[in-house]
Fold ATP synthase complex subunit 8.
Amino acid sequence: MPQLNPNPWFFIMLTSWLTFSLIIQPKLLAFTSTNPPLNKKSTPTSTTPWPWPWT
């Protein structure tokens, strides 16, 4: 059964994880958001009870 042979697939998986970990992830973590959520003011929401027809 060739699908049980990890020779080619293990190298492909290892290469893709190393590419993600060493190249792509630092670029994503260095991204700064243009609209950070810290600038938003929290406003309390006013909720009204739902008028259930069977109560």
